[in-house]
Structures are given as structure tokens and as C-alpha cells.
Amino acid sequence: MKRIWQKKHWWALVLVGAMLLAACGQPAAPAPAPAPASPPAQESENNDADQPGVASIAIAARAGAMADALKAVAAQYTQETGIDVQVNDMPYDNLKETIVLDVRNNSGAYDLVMMDDPWMPEFGQANLLANLDDYFTEGVDPDFVPTTINLSREPYGTGSLYALPLIGNVQMFFYREDLIEKYDLTPPENWDDVLAIAEVITREEPDTFGYALRGQRGNPIVSNYMPLFWAYGGRVLDENGVPQVNSEAGVKAMETYMKLKDLGPVGVEAFDSDQIATALTQGQAAMLVAWPSWVAMVDNEEDSLVAGKVAFAAVPGQVNESAAMIGNWLLGVPRTSSKIEAAVDFMKWVTSAEVQKEMAMIGGGVPTRRSVYQDPELIEKYRHYPAQLEALERSVARPRTPYWSQIEDVWGMYLSQILAGQVEIQEGLDRANEEIKNMLP
Amino acid sequence: MTWIFLTPTVVLFLLLTVYPLFYAAYTSFFRVDYILDQSTFVGIQNYQRIIRDMNFWNAVKNTLIFVVSAVLFELVLGTAFAIFFNKEMKYRKLFRTIVLIPMLLPPITVALTWKMMYAYDQGVLNYLLEVIGLGRIEWLSSTTWALTAIIITDIWQWTPFVFLMVLASLQAIPESLYQSARVSGATSWQCFRYITLPLLKPTLTLALLLRTIDTFRVFDKMYVLTGGGPGNATETITFYIYRYGFRYFHTGYAAAGSIIMVIMVCGVSFLYIRRAFRTANAK
């Protein structure tokens, strides 16, 4: 009798294990169903050449205002050409995994994908994207800001073209001009000034904090902390590719960052772009570093309590000059797409000056062309455009390494631990550096 | 001829569960970079690295805290609800349906809704806390509360599952048992302790097993509510595996993590399973 029981135990165990594995294999992330691929599969094998029959293209996009703007103009494209454009929006993490799996599994579900620019070296090295040189034999329109086109090439700046810049984000420093005047202060030039101003405003101005940081683990905290890291003279990788995130500059930048946390609203450890943007527009925070696409509504009186009171400037420096971090969203074509030609047509159309202007007017678009930044109608609506163009022209890219996603994730986890008070600054950064070192080949 | 009827199930089982299990075990001995499509045999190196990784043990700790407290509360609350709603009362069916609703919602929706309720400034929970004179809580942004907040969400969603199971088995207990007990002078506590509880035991064991396995796999709530943070305060084993599997695409390493997790769950489940079969065979 006993033997029978035990046999059953083992089967039950295998079953339990298998259930678990099935669950691990496909995490219940909010994976949107891949777009129904059309035209039907049999058509998709053999048509690299002209495809008069293309009825639709599918785009994987980063959810948020950018995807909303993209959807709005896509509808217009459908009207003009009859080609249906399906925009599938998904959160940041989900987007990258969707792109990788789409190409590696040869599914060909997407014809265009939005990519965060630091993914480019990784995607380029892994050969996930279609080379676009043949579609731009006459070169890329010189109207594009050169720093944005550099990102679209692999290797950086010199290689083949694999994408076009869709969203020209560059980090900027936003601050409440009215409060600076009210308390007889001068606009900050370095992070010491920022600290001093933040202290005054937090103390004196009711219901307003000096500074809002974006402390959520992973990409958010890294992109928010890096401007300080650079300003204090930090470098992620040295000449030999050895990580240096625990350098003296890193420690000093983190000390300042911790002080800024205490001069901000409660709960910044969980803040992402949307929360810091809300903190600014609702008058809760006086200063912050943000991507312009998230703060486009700051002058809109319906959404913002501080319309007309916010000034835009380059990110403050410290030991070094300020370095504006570029963070573009690029539009590329997965190698496995069966409709490359149609995808490139849409890509050219959507990055044209007219459409960029339209997307900027809607609110989610950030231009990548000089002519759009100089458009008088847009400058009237977004008075920061001249400053933003200048920042974009002088912007600096994050390290070009295929391991950036991993570095960022590990670094971001330890920065978040330090911010939440789980570990001391030096110890946390040492551990981050050690772990990054182990990840690199 | 019975094999004809068994074949479809067995084939599906082999294809969809046994094969992936062994394939995962096989993959765990390779260093795989899925983005670059490279794979090298490394023996047990993946396992050695995981076991030495402090973050992995932190994830194990978080998972165990999560599993034990969520399952415990779900069992106790679910049983209490079931006993309560087993009585005759007006609108009983309506109330029962309402109790079941959380379980029917998609986990992502549940997590997003709770995320709004947990918001520090605009969240309804902090508002209520202030109304009754307590201070606000940093639900999702403090390392002390974040895991608790996720546990509360899970309890809210899955207590109905236990409720449903227990209610079904309560209704199967013949009323005559209680009648004769009362005739012999048993108090209602004694009725519960010596009739209801023993007869519910198989159901409770099963609910315990199913909830344990399910909470071990929790992922969506962490993914939406905290992203594993702040720091690594809410990183569970599944989240750890996810990071390596789907952010870094180190598929072999992630597979090794999954195998370790399977072994752990099997260890935990073993006791339950043995007990369940014993009860079944005793009948």
C-alpha cells in the first residue's frame, strides 16, 4: 500500500513542478496580444520588393503620451494611404522584451518598434534590426539634429542607419521662477545652489517642496541620478571598460541626492516621470530634472496650476559643466518584418517636419528636427523650445555598450536601496560596482 | 481499452508540462544569451552563482514572508466568511456573489486599482486613515510597508477562493450531525471544533496547497505595484527570475532559478500532498 502512495507522490510533485515552471516561463506581465498579423502569413514570405498589397503595419510603442500622439497621427496616415496602422502600446520593460522575443522567435508580428536609445548597441550587435542604408541612399535629411541621428547609427555616429529618431527628449532642469524671485534668490548654477534654494523654499513656501526626484527602482532612478553623477565628474565605465559607479564622484552625487530627497514630497522612492510631472504642475515641487515630453502640459492652464511660472534651463553642473542627457525614442524596423518597405515609408512620413509639428501640438511629441523647434507657432505654445533645441544640440548620450540595460538595472536597484535607507551610500555603490563588474564579459 | 481515454490527457501532459520541465532543467546547465543567440555549456555554474547571490536569498526571504502571511490570512478569513454566509439570511445569494467578485478580476486590474488607493497624497486609504485620526502611511515607497501592502492586495483578491471551496464543503456536511450533537448538549464552539473543523480538513488542506503554489508564483502584483522596489524590498523569486530571463535574457541562469524554485515548492508541497493522499486512502 505504502509504495503506491509514494508513486503517486512523485507524480503529484512533477505536476506541481510543471505548473510552476509553466508560470515562470510566461510571467503574467501585462503582455498585450501581438497584433493580428495581416496580410496573412502565406503572403509574407517572399516579398521584400514592392508590396502594393500591404494592408496594415503594426507598431510596438511605449505607452503614454507619446503612443497617444502616435495613434492620433497614425489615423491620419490611414486616411491618406489606406494602410491601417496598428499602434500597440506597452510599458517600458514590456516593450524591450516584446521586441527581442518578436525577432528571436521569428514571429514578425511588428513592422516598426519604438526603442529607447541606449538599447541600440545591444540590438545592433544582436542583429535584431533591418539595416536601413539602402532606403536612405541619398543620406539622412540634414534637418535632423545631428545628436539624434548619431544615436540611430550603430556603431554610434559612424555606422549604418538602423532607425530614425521619433521623440527627441533631452533632460532639462525645470524650476519655479516666481518662487526664486519671491525669496530673492538667483537661479541655480550648480547642485550646491539647488540644495540651498530647495532648503529655503521647503522652509518658507507653504505646501511646496524644494525638489522632486524620480526615485523608482531601475531606469527611472538611474536616468534621474545620472545628471548629478556626471556633474560631479563621474563616469560609468573608464577607458578600459571597467565600471566606476562607486567612485568618489558617485558617492558625492549620491550624498546630494539623499539631501534632495529630504527636501521633497513624501514617497519619492516610488516616483516615476508621471509623478514628478504632477508634483510640478500641481505646485507641490519647485525644481526637478525631467524629460520634456512628460512636462509638456506645464503651461496649459487646464492641467497646470503653475502655468507661466516655470523656467527651463540646462541641468546644473558641479565639478563639470552641465551635461544634458539625451534620451530619444527611436523608430526601427525588426529584421523579421515582412513589410520593411511599407514600414520605412511610414517611418519617413512620421518623422517629417509636418507630422512632428502635429505630434508636438497634440502634446506627446518631442521634435528631432531643427526646423520644427524654430517653428513660430510651436514656440508660442512651448516657449522652452529654443532652450530645448540648444540642450539637444549639446546633449551627451549614455554609455554606448550592449550591456547598458543590465548595468542600468543593477545600478538602479542599488541606488534605490540606498535611497530607501536599506544600505549606506558607500556600501551600496560598492556592491553595485562589484555586481556590474561580474556581469560584463 | 481504457488507454484510449487516457491518451489525450497523457499526451498533453507530456507535451505541455513534462517536456518544458526537463527542457528547463537542461537549459539551466548552459550560459545562454538569448539576445545574441549564444549558448555555452557551463555545468552547474549557474546554480553556484545563484546560491552565492545575496539578492537571491533576499528574494527567497520575501517570497516566504509573502506566502506564509498571505496564505494564512486567506485561509482564516475565507473560512470565517464561508461559515458566516452558510447561515440562512436575506439576500444570501447576492452577498455571496459580491464576495466572489475580487477573484474574478484580472490581477493587473486589481494591482492598478490598489496602486491608486495606496497613493500617499491622493490615495483613499491614507484619506481614511486621516479621517479616523491616524497618520498617513507610505504604503509603496517605504521598505517596511511595501511588502505588507502587496500582501493585503493578495489577501483581498484570493480570500474568495478559499471562501468558495470551504462553502461548498460546508454545505456537504449533513445537518443531522449538528442536530444530534446539540441533543447531546454540545455548545456551538464544540460543534465547530469537533464536527465542522474535522470534516473541513481535507478541503482546507487542498486550499492550503493550491494557495501556497499560487502565491509562490506571485509576480503581477509586484510588477505593477512596486517593480520589486523600493530597493529590493518586494523582490520575490519570480521577480528575480524575470529580471534575468526577460530583462537581461540570461535564459540559462533564469532556468536555473526556476528549477531551484520548483525544488523549493515541491519541498513545501510534499507534506501537504502526503497528507492529502493519506486522507484520501483512509476513506
Automatic annotation (TrEMBL), chain A:
Residues 29-50 are annotated as: Disordered. Belongs to the bacterial solute-binding protein 1 family. Residues 1-28 form the signal peptide. PANTHER family: ABC TRANSPORTER PERIPLASMIC-BINDING PROTEIN YCJN-RELATED (PTHR43649:SF34), ARABINOSE-BINDING PROTEIN-RELATED (PTHR43649). InterPro entries: Bact_solute-bd_prot1, SBP. The keyword Signal applies. The keyword Glycoprotein does not apply. Keywords: Signal, Sugar transport, Transport. It comes from Anoxynatronum buryatiense. It comes from the Bacteria. Residues 29-39 have a biased composition (Pro residues). It holds the Pfam family SBP_bac_1. This is Multiple sugar transport system substrate-binding protein.
TrEMBL record, chain B:
Keywords: Cell membrane, Membrane, Transmembrane, Transmembrane helix, Transport. GO terms for biological process: transmembrane transport. The keyword Transmembrane helix applies. It comes from the Bacteria. The chain crosses the membrane at residues 64-85, 97-120, 145-170, 191-213, 253-273. Residues 60-272 form the ABC transmembrane type-1 domain. PANTHER family: BLR7065 PROTEIN, SPERMIDINE_PUTRESCINE TRANSPORT SYSTEM PERMEASE PROTEIN. It is found in: Cell membrane. Pfam families: BPD_transp_1. Its main location: membrane. PROSITE patterns: ABC_TM1. Belongs to the binding-protein-dependent transport system permease family. GO terms for cellular component: plasma membrane. This is Carbohydrate ABC transporter membrane protein 1, CUT1 family. It is a multi-pass membrane protein.
